[in-house]
């Protein structure tokens, strides 16, 4: 398994997360990137590979603003919310091939102040099928497209809205421990149940935020990562997975299984760890249900048992599996999961604001584009 | 029929036009591989079972059973503001594919996995007829 520990996260950076700005997405992306590069103790011109999040800044923006003289690789991983974690695999592959030493993953967006999700998805090429065959019937936004997956899970397995609420409430508790989380008001299960229905069974508080800001990560080659400013966080296992009927959930044989179900066994095998070894998990949380479904597809519990798994604060800092310790997309900011990589890195460095004591091994997932999945398992060095 | 239709409309391609033409004739037509016979939806150029690009079209029976659903209470596009709340059904067709469409005349309390429904047709513009699901 050549990619196992071929590289490490050496730098992470964020901007202040906002709900309202007159700045451009590009300026957020550059600021976050600069923060990540400085966190690693590198200069912008040291970056020789770029994997920016799609629909945003392109390689030329970085060459121009950073003064990169010899960029050797640029690509995007067009998997929606699964892109950020999938780009870790891409980065390791080009590092292992000897093409790059320091690859920058970055995202900047004005999701709150710019185009909102209902309008954005109409422009995305991967939503072309949905655009022709489902949007004309009024099935437009992710909340509406994903809700039938949650409903099917509820009907098959008895999963309850109050169990989804547990995820929202725990995630909010974690956000309240963060200095850079946009949602700071306490939330109870009753608050969740009283929040307005968006697309049944998904209520407002099952849905992630729309946010302005940026986040970025530097992945460095294993032979370059140990003399930098911060201790490296080694990437032990990484994989991406694409579900059956990847762009139309309606046609998917099993509505309750995501692409992550294909990726997770590969990543665990590459890492050589078991579920009991995972001290902390940052799970892509565009919706509460998607967290629960991924916990099943990751193998932390059987299919259908996710509702029971998350009950009684199980995902809290002192629970059986601390999840989304930064507040996630639900309560910190929607940075398409780049903020999840940032947080896992901080947890494994021991510098998180809501630190899981003695966190040594953790995982991060991405989910997007109707069901694509990605996973990385990391350890402190 | 509304002359100021303000909802999203499809942009058919040569691969998909027969589907939309069928709906205008109040027929639910599904694409079928002309070589191995596998029915597929949504329409696309290639059969994923035998990779043939030869296609023909068959009329669906027009029946089905509910696989899942959502009830939308928020308008993600202004065109649907006046329709809230509306039920979107994911329906298993006997041909082996699914169809996503709004429900007509089906109460929220009647919704369950396996509920039998039948396809209906709603002309919304001169060019566009949408499928809907009605109670059996």
Question: SS-based structural class of chain B?
Answer: mainly beta
In round numbers, the mean pLDDT of chain A is 96
- Spatial order of strands in the largest sheet of chain A: 3-2-4-7-1-8-11-10-9
Question: Can you tell me the CATH architecture of chain A?
Answer: 3-Layer(aba) Sandwich
Based on Cα principal axes, name the global outline of chain B.
Answer: globular
- Provide mean pLDDT of chain B, rounded: 96
Helix content of chain A: 25-40%
Structural class of chain A: alpha/beta
Q: Radius of gyration of chain A over alpha carbons?
A: 19 Å
Helix content of chain B: under 10%
Shape of chain A: globular
Which class of chain A in CATH terms? Alpha Beta
CATH topology value of the largest domain in chain B: OB fold (Dihydrolipoamide Acetyltransferase, E2P)
Largest sheet of chain A: 9 strands, mixed
Could you characterize the architecture of this molecule?
The complex is a heterodimer of chains A (381) and B (136). In chain A, 34% of the residues lie in helices and 18% in strands. Chain A has helices at 25-39, 59-66, 83-96, 117-120, 128-133, 142-157, 161-175, 189-194, 260-271, 288-298, 306-309, 328-332, 338-349; strands at 7-14, 49-52, 73-74, 102-110, 197-200, 202-203, 212-221, 233-241, 280-282, 361-368, 372-380. In chain A, the strands form two sheets. A nine-stranded mixed sheet of chain A has the order 3-2-4-7-1-8-11-10-9, with helices on both faces. Chain A is globular, with a radius of gyration of 19 Å. The longest helix of chain B is centred in the N-terminal third of the chain and has 8 residues, at 17-24. Chain A binds chain B through residues 117-118, 122, 129, 131-141, 143-144, 147-149, 151-152, 155-156, 196-202, 248, 250-251, 255, and chain B through 7-12, 16, 41-42, 67-74, 76-77, 80, 83, 85-86, 88, 90, 97-102, 112-113, 128, 130-131. Strand 5 (197-200) of chain A pairs antiparallel with strand 4 of chain B.
């Amino acid at each position: 398994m050549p990619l196992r520990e071929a590289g490490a996260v050496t730098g992470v950076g964020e901007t202040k997360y906002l709900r309202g700005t007159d700045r451009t997405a590009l300026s957020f992306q550059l600021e976050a990137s600069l923060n990540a590069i400085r966190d690693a103790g590198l200069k912008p011109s040291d970056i020789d590979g770029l994997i920016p999040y799609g629909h945003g800044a392109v390689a030329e923006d970085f060459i121009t603003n950073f003064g990169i003289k010899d960029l050797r690789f640029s690509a995007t991983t067009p998997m929606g919310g699964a892109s950020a974690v999938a780009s870790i695999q891409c980065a390791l592959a080009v590092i292992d091939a000897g093409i790059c030493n320091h690859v920058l993953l970055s995202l900047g967006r004005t999701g709150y102040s710019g185009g909102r999700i209902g309008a954005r998805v109409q422009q995305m090429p991967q939503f072309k099928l949905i655009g022709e065959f489902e949007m004309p019937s009024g099935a437009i936004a992710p909340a509406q497209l994903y809700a039938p997956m949650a409903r099917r899970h509820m009907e098959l397995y008895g999963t309850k809205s109050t169990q989804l609420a547990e995820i929202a409430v725990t995630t909010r508790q974690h956000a309240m421990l963060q200095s850079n989380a946009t949602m700071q008001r306490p939330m109870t299960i009753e608050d969740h149940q009283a929040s307005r229905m968006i697309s049944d069974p998904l209520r407002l508080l099952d849905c992630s935020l729309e946010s302005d800001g940026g986040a970025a990560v530097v992945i460095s080659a294993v032979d370059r990562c140990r003399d930098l400013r911060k201790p490296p966080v080694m990437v032990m296992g990484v994989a991406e997975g694409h579900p059956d009927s990847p762009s139309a959930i309606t046609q998917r044989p099993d509505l309750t299984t995501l692409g992550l179900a294909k990726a997770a066994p590969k990543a665990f095998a590459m890492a050589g760890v078991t579920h009991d070894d995972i001290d902390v998990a940052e799970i892509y949380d565009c919706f509460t249900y998607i967290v629960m479904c991924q916990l099943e597809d990751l193998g932390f519990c059987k299919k259908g048992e996710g509702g029971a798994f998350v009950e009684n604060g199980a995902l809290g800092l002192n629970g059986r599996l601390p999840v989304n310790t930064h507040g996630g997309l639900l309560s910190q900011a929607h940075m398409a999961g780049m903020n999840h990589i940032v947080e896992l890195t901080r947890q494994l460095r021991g510098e998180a604001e809501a630190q899981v004591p003695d966190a040594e091994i953790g995982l991060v997932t991405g989910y997007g584009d109707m069901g694509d999945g990605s996973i990385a398992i990391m350890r402190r060095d | 029929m509304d002359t100021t239709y303000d909802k999203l409309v499809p942009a058919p391609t040569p691969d998909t036009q027969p589907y939309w033409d069928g709906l205008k004739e109040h027929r639910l037509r599904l694409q079928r591989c002309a070589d191995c016979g596998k029915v597929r939806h949504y329409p696309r150029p290639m059969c994923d079972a035998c990779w043939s690009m030869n296609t023909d079209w068959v009329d669906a029976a027009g029946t089905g059973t509910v696989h899942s659903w959502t009830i939308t209470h928020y308008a993600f596009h202004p065109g649907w503001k006046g329709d809230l709340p509306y039920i979107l059904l994911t329906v298993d067709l006997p041909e082996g594919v699914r169809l996503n469409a709004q429900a007509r005349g089906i109460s929220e309390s009647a919704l369950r996995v396996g509920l039998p429904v039948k396809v209906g047709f709603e002309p919304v513009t001169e060019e566009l007829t949408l499928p809907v699901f009605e109670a059996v």
